[in-house]
Each structure stands twice: as C-alpha cells, then as structure tokens.
Specification:
Strand order of the largest sheet: 17-18-16-15-21-22-23
Oligomer: single chain
InterPro entries: ATPase_NBD, Carb_kinase_FGGY, Carb_kinase_FGGY_CS, FGGY_C, FGGY_N, Glycerol_kin
Structural class: alpha+beta
Pathway: Polyol metabolism; glycerol degradation via glycerol kinase pathway; sn-glycerol 3-phosphate from glycerol: step 1/1
Number of helices: 16
Largest sheet: 7 strands, mixed
GO molecular function: ATP binding; glycerol kinase activity
Organism: Nesterenkonia aurantiaca
Catalytic activity: glycerol + ATP = sn-glycerol 3-phosphate + ADP + H(+)
Length: 504
C-alpha cells in the first residue's frame, strides 16, 4: 500500500508540493515563487504557464527530497488561490491572457454596470456573494470583453475558464490529450455563477454576465477521484482525488468539521471561516456565505467567511515596493524595537476594502504620522493592521452566529510571528491557538484526497491528528483595547471614497 499523499498548493505568491504521511506530518516539500505582474495601478496578474511549469518542478523536488516515486503516493490533492481567473484555448492549452488575480480591481466598472440593476447584492441570495471585483465572474467577463478574438472563440466553444485548480488539474490529467475540466464546489462558490442550494451553474446569472456556459468546468465534490495523472507526468497514473479552495482547505486541515468550528489563515490576505454545518446562513454583517466542503455523495457543508484582501502582502509591499526591509522577518525585529505604534495606523486598502465593509473605491492610507515616528513604529503598525482587520471580521462572525467565539485557531505563514500573535490575542480579548502543523492549507487538500481513496477512514480519524503547538493569552486591558479599536476605525474611514471617475 502507498504510504503517502501529495498536496499541490497553488498559492498567490508561490506553488508548493508537500508530501504528508498518515499522521498528517510533513515528509518533504518543494516550493517556487512566481512573478507578480502589475501592468497598471490596481491590476494584478500571473503567468499561467509559469504556474504550470513551477507545479511540475515542485512535485519533482518534493519527491526527490524524500527519495519517493509515484508508487509511494496514494493520491494527489489540490488547493489553490480561489478567485484568480484563467481563460485558455482547449485546443492548444495556451492561455488567451494572463491570470487575473483575486486582488485585481480593474473590473470595478463591470461591477457598477451589473449593480445598476438591483445593487451590489443583486445575486447574493443565490450565490452568497455581493458584486465585487474580488470574484471570478467579473474577471472572465473582462477577458471576453477586452482580449481580441476571445469572445468569438468562447462562443465557438474553444475556450475554457477556471480558477487555478481547474488549470492545474486540466494540465495534470493530460491537457489537450484528454485533460479533465472540473472544479470543486468550494471554488465554484467563488465565481458568482453557482447556486448555493443546487450546487449548479445558474443560467440566468451567466446570461447577465454574458459568459458562455460551455467555458465552465464541471462541478464536482471536494473529495472523489476526478481522474489520473497523465502518463507524461512524474506522478503518472496516480489518482487526483481532492480539490479545495485554499481557505476551505485550511479549515479542513484545522479539523474544523463541526458546526461552529473556525480558523483564521494569515497569508497574502487573511480569511476567517466559520463552519455553519448543512445550513446556509445569510450574513447580516458583511460576511460571505460559501461552501465549506462536500465529501463525495454526502450533503454539502457551508460556512461564513470574512475575507481580508491585504495582510501578508502588506509586508511584501514594504519589502519589494518600498525597500523598507530586506526580508519579511525583519518586520518583527523592527516592531519589537518600539513599545507601541507611536500613534500610527496603516490601513492597506490596496484592493479596496473587503469584509466587513465591501468598499471597492477605498485605497490604502498611513495616518497619525508625526516627527516622533520611526521605522519601528511603521513596521509595528503594518503588523497590527492584520490583527485589527481580523478583529473586525471576528466581530461580524460573532454577530451573525449570536455566540462569541471562545478562542481562535490560526494558521499560515504569519503565525510564526510571535509579536503579531500576541497583539492578535490582545486586540481580540480571547486566546489565539496555533497547531503543530501550520501548513493546514496543503494538509486539508491531502486529507480530502486521502479520504477519497481510503487512505483515511473518516473525519474522526483526521481530527485525532490535530494537536496544539502554542497558545497566546490576551494581556491588554479593556480600556486600552477599546482606545486602539476606536482609532483603528477612525483610520479606516479615511480610506473611503478615494476612487471616483477621474482617479484610478
């Protein structure tokens, strides 16, 4: 019997392949960053061919580091940056345009056009999402409307569309030589095209967006055998058996299988997900309703989500755009060099504001600057922005649930930052808990694939793999917490109404 599962984690800044054993421990991994392309202000793109090339490379790296072959791998799981949109020619396998990334804001005019009839919540009852630049639907429409020849090809049935899970799966299973064009319910729920109740594409919404149904992938569960890796690939004949969008995968990897289970992932952005069971809960406080997962023929499990566009990418911006630091870990060192933020607040509304505000016209600000302020204060304020934004979406989740969360399970790259995690506990007023395996996104995809092929029996067995690594307890007094939150909310209001007709 094969002893391991491999997960492909196609993320916003890099692609990774991680091999897991039966206990959910990491055996080996490979990782490679891809280029972040910024053609214009507000535009964010990736090269889909670079992503596919990197995917093949990191699979090879992960296998070679642990001296494994395809015979050691029971199944492949895939997780991905969700709303990032790829449109490609099914006959050549070539993308017609770069992937448009979930952070991209170029489609605001399309949002405004569609919202003119029924407002931004025009489709929310069906799909759980407001009209926003964030989701895949407006991105695929932009490609069809703006790339020469794309619409004619799409209407002729020659183009395929998908998030990066569909792109990777299609190539992995053969591409132009019989590759399967599929997505899972979690990714489908981020397009604006899927009815949450029927789990099928909605023809009325597709007509409103003017997107041909023939482009769309077939919707599958999150855990079943979709096909096998093509004979030309290293993992040939290995079943591809699990797909989960990255945030749902992290929830699955955190073993949040019960109603009320929750996690917060600290990555390029931050994403709080609360499991609502088999009930579709409509948020009254700015959260999204989404599919959490669906295991084979079982009923779907739903979730509420608080999506924050910019957290880890703010640190990346300080490093790459401003040259403020040379490496991301320097931020923690700088932040610890000062006692507090010196009155500075950074609101990184680079892609507008996501949950709970949904203000597409907002843009980033740094407020509270005085001659007293130094690099340490700005570094600290940049870290604190992540914690403040998390507090706001947690408040929204508590309001929707009617019950306050008692602690918060966390994962993602930024949870290695002790200063941030302590401030997070302080500003929330509840404990913050980190698991021993923090690569929960890849782990969740591995779990979904393993369940489909019998590598693991059920979710009860998976839950026994979860264990606590570290817990941070709140130390800030209530008066100081309230003061900080008041100033943060004041700073947020300064981002509003920046973009208008002649400001891009």
């Amino acid at each position: 019997m094969s002893k391991y599962i491999i997960a492909i984690d196609q993320g916003t800044t890099s692609t990774r392949a991680i091999v897991f054993d039966h206990s959910g421990n990491i055996v080996s991994s490979g990782q490679k960053e891809h280029e972040q392309i910024f053609p214009k202000p507000g535009w964010v793109e990736h090269d889909p061919m670079e992503i596919w090339t990197n995917t093949r490379e990191v699979i090879g790296n992960a296998l070679s580091k642990s001296n494994l072959t395809r015979h050691d791998i029971a199944a492949v799981g895939i997780t991905n940056q969700r709303e990032t949109t790829v449109v490609w020619d099914k006959n050549t396998g070539e993308p017609v345009y770069n992937a448009i990334v979930w952070q991209d804001t170029r489609t605001q005019p399309i949002v405004d056009e569609l919202a003119a009839d029924g407002g931004v919540e025009r489709f929310k009852k069906k799909v759980g999402l407001p009209l926003a630049t964030y989701f895949s639907g407006t991105k695929v429409k932009w490609i069809l409307d703006n790339v020469e020849g794309a619409r004619a090809k799409a209407e002729a049935g020659d183009l395929l569309f998908g998030n990066t899970d569909s792109w990777v799966t299609w190539h992995l299973t053969g591409g132009t030589e019989g590759g399967v064009h599929i997505t899972d319910v979690t990714n489908a729920s981020r397009t604006m095209f899927m009815d949450l109740e029927t789990l099928s594409w909605d023809d009325e919404i597709l007509a409103a967006f003017d997107v041909p149904r023939s482009m769309l992938p077939e919707i599958k569960s999150s855990s079943e055998v979709y096909g096998k890796v093509h004979t030309a690939q290293l993992l040939r004949e290995t079943p591809v058996a699990g797909i989960l969008g990255d945030q749902q995968a992290a929830t699955f990897g955190q073993a949040a299988f019960e109603k009320g289970g929750a996690k917060n992932t600290y990555g390029t952005g931050n994403f709080l997900i609360v499991n609502t069971g088999e009930e579709i809960v409509r948020s009254q406080n700015g959260l999204l309703t989404t599919v959490c997962y669906k295991l084979g023929d079982a009923k779907p499990v739903y979730a509420l989500e608080g999506s924050i566009a910019v957290t880890g990418s703010l640190i990346q911006w300080l490093r790459d755009n401003l040259g403020f630091i040379k490496s991301a870990p320097e931020v923690e060192t700088l932040a610890k060099s000062v006692e507090d933020n010196g009155g500075v607040y950074v609101v990184p509304a680079f892609s507008g504001l996501f949950a709970p505000y949904w203000r597409g016209e907002a843009r980033g600000v740094i407020v509270g600057l005085t001659r007293f302020v130094n690099k340490g204060h700005i570094a600290r304020a940049a870290l604190e922005a992540t914690a403040f934004q998390t507090r706001e979406v947690l408040d929204a989740a508590n309001a929707d649930a009617g019950v306050d969360m008692e602690d918060l399970r966390v994962d993602g790259g930024m949870v290695a930052n002790d200063a941030l995690m302590q401030f997070q506990a302080d500003i929330l007023g509840i404990p913050v808990v980190r698991p021993k395996v923090t690569e929960t996104t890849a782990l969740g995809a591995a779990y979904a694939a393993g369940l489909a092929v019998g590598f693991w029996r059920d979710t009860d067995e998976l839950a026994t793999n979860w264990s606590e690594d570290k817990r941070w307890l709140p130390q800030m007094d209530t008066a100081e917490r309230d003061r900080q939150l008041r100033l943060w909310k004041k700073a947020v209001t300064r981002t509003f109404d920046w973009v208008d007709e002649d400001v891009k």
